[in-house]
Specification:
With 602 residues, this protein is of the alpha+beta class. The protein is built from 14 helices and 24 strands. A 10-stranded mixed β-sheet has the order 6-5-4-3-7-1-8-9-2-10, with helices on both faces. Strands 15, 17, 19, 20, 22 and 23 form a 6-stranded mixed β-sheet that branches.
């Protein structure tokens, strides 16, 4: 009897020990799968933070995070919005992923490209985007088409642009929730943070790891913010700083960042959440553009859009307490936006699909062992172009290696000795110039073999995921300059860009509707809208007499009647890729149609 009891006790002891071990393993496994929050600000340069040395801008919450983080001090992106966002999402340079501009048909991902969101989702994460996408407004490159479970965002490159919901103004706007318009109360940055926190709270209840892409549209222009944030800087404007509202927008970001930090602490999520803070390009409002350089840029030359250091060197801070990535340390190795997917994949122990042709390197070992690891013999390539044409091979480029910066193929700078890039030493170090140019040639030889280099990103019609697509003149291809503001449409600004890349997924009859105004603010082509949302616009009339379209070897034309809100063409289209050209005809002048809607006939 005593023996049986002992056996039962031993079995019980073994059972509970195994149960405890299994539970422990489960906990450890769960801890090894951290949550990830990637915060990407818009047009915030390397000098637009207190922790980066700005003597006027107050960012106490981000400064505190800076002190707790590992800082990549030589981190580079592309000099413009879309190219950087595309590189982050695909792990490929813009010249390789095809999204190298912010308009003219090259501001969207190419079809079937996998993204960072796909990687997280395929590895068990719930994924959410909050804020700015700028990688495609139509299927197949909307956020929900490329791996995001939840997407709350504005359209195109900024709140209030002509492709966004008409009348948006940063305050009390209509944003898109998984592609459906929904009104929100409050300031745009506040909305993105609030919705992201709601998302994370729900994921915690479900006990699911999450990936949050908190991609802000601030402090991109127009520089609009509540006066309480900009008021402290007004007295400095024009003498010490360039723009008080720009600083105010960053102050608002800092306040929201503090609320996010408190949320993570309160919900006990902070220790096992990777938080990254970075920007998409150099400053737009932190430095004056008239050559006086009012403001602070950490000693670097260049702003958004330039190939000098200030155009593409950005802050990058990362913290993960459970992963031992903390402690306020600097890492001076050269790193870039294309490195994020391989680095996060390693940190989160995720598999990456073989078909993803990643350009970046994994710098996770640097984060964990900064004194022991290096990224030896590493170069970074900066190519982008505000055009449908591919970026130039050498002109308007920058090749980076260690401390060297080769700009436009002819200007060589040692950034450690000459951060403002005042002294071109190409004549002193011709071998370095030759080496960097050779590396660039090898890189481009591979790039030019990619289909994305020559083939335009397409808007797909005939897919059930989006029964009606909306095309705007903002994204149209052509030889004219850019047009992107609602105000420009309202004032009747004419633009020659008129071409859109289309792929017909299913053969059939389609309706192509050409409009002056978007459907959410309808009006006749020859008149003005019935409503002036928020009383923002000075409406002007245009006087075209006809609409002409060309698609799939068909040229069609119709007259515009005084009561027409749209001119509709019914066309039969076979499967495949084609170009749509659409114009308003006014006498001998033609210019692009502002809004076009395409749907398949039932």
């Amino acid at each position: 009897m005593s023996l049986n009891k002992n056996i039962q006790l031993n079995y019980s002891s073994v059972f509970y020990t195994l149960l405890f071990l299994l539970f422990s393993v489960g906990v450890i496994t769960a801890q090894k799968k951290p949550n990830v929050i990637l915060i990407l600000t818009d047009d915030q340069g390397i000098g637009d933070l207190g922790c980066e040395g700005n003597p006027w801008l107050k960012t106490p919450n981000i400064d505190a995070f800076y002190k707790e983080s590992i800082r990549m001090t030589d981190f580079h992106v592309s000099p413009m919005c879309t190219p950087t966002r595309a590189a982050i999402m695909t792990g490929r340079y813009p010249i390789n992923n095809g999204a190298w501009a912010t308009y003219k048909g090259r501001d969207a991902l190419s079809k079937d490209q996998l993204t960072m969101a796909n990687v997280f989702k395929q590895n068990g994460y719930t994924t959410g985007l909050f804020g700015k996408w700028h990688l495609g407004d139509n299927y197949p490159t909307r956020p929900t088409d490329v791996g995001f479970d939840v997407a709350i965002h504005h359209k195109a490159g900024g709140v209030g642009e002509l492709s966004d919901y008409w009348g948006n103004s940063y305050f009390n706007d209509v944003y898109y929730v998984n592609n459906e318009p929904k009104p929100f109360e409050g300031y745009c940055t506040d909305v993105w943070f609030k919705e992201a926190i709601k998302f994370m709270k729900q994921r915690k209840k479900e006990d699911n790891p999450f990936f949050v892409y908190l991609a802000l549209n601030a402090p991109h222009d127009p520089w609009l913010v509540d006066e309480k944030y900009s008021k402290p800087y007004k007295k400095l404007e024009g003498t010490k700083i360039n723009n008080a509202n720009f600083y105010g927008m960053i102050a608002n970001i800092d306040e929201n960042f503090g609320k996010l930090q408190q949320f993570l602490k309160n919900e006990k999520l902070l220790e096992n959440t990777i938080v990254i803070y970075m920007s998409d390009n150099g400053t737009s409002g932190g430095i004056s553009r008239d050559g006086k350089e009012i403001g602070y840029n950490k000693g670097f030359r260049g702003i958004k859009g330039t190939k000098t250091e200030g155009g593409h060197r950005v802050p990058f801070f990362i913290r993960w307490p459970n992963g031992k990535i903390k402690g306020g340390k600097d890492i001076n190795e050269l790193a870039a936006h294309v490195d994020l997917i391989p680095t996060l994949a390693n940190l989160c122990q995720m598999s990456v699909p073989e078909k993803m042709k990643l350009d970046g390197v994994d710098f996770s070992k640097l984060l964990r062992h900064p004194k022991e690891e290096t990224l030896a013999n590493r170069s970074v390539f900066v190519h982008h172009r505000q055009d449908w044409r591919p970026p130039m091979d050498v002109n308007q480029s920058c090749i980076l290696k260690e401390n060297w910066r080769l700009v436009n193929g002819t200007e060589l700078y040692d950034i450690a000795k000459d951060p403002h890039q005042d002294n071109n030493v190409a004549g002193i170090y011709p071998d370095i110039v030759k080496q960097l140019l050779n590396q660039n040639t090898e890189f481009l030889n591979v790039s030019k073999k990619n289909p994305e280099y020559n083939e335009l990103p397409v808007n797909v019609i005939g897919n059930k995921s989006q029964p009606e697509i909306k095309l705007t003149i903002q994204h149209a291809i052509g030889e004219d300059g850019g047009i992107w503001k609602c105000e420009q449409v309202a004032e009747g600004m004419k633009n020659k860009n008129n071409t859109h890349a289309i792929e017909i997924e299913e053969e059939g009859d389609y309706l192509i509707s050409c409009c002056r105004w978007p459907k959410e603010c309808s009006g006749t082509i020859l008149g003005t809208p019935n409503e002036n949302i928020k009383n923002r616009f000075q409406y002007q009339k245009i006087r075209p007499s006809k609409v002409q379209i060309s698609i799939a070897n068909q040229i069609l034309e119709k007259e515009i009647k005084p009561t027409d809100e749209e001119v509709v063409f019914k066309v039969h289209l076979k499967r495949g890729k084609t170009l749509l050209r659409n114009d308003f005809i006014e006498g001998k002048e033609s210019y692009g149609v502002y809004y076009t809607y395409i749907s398949k006939c039932n």
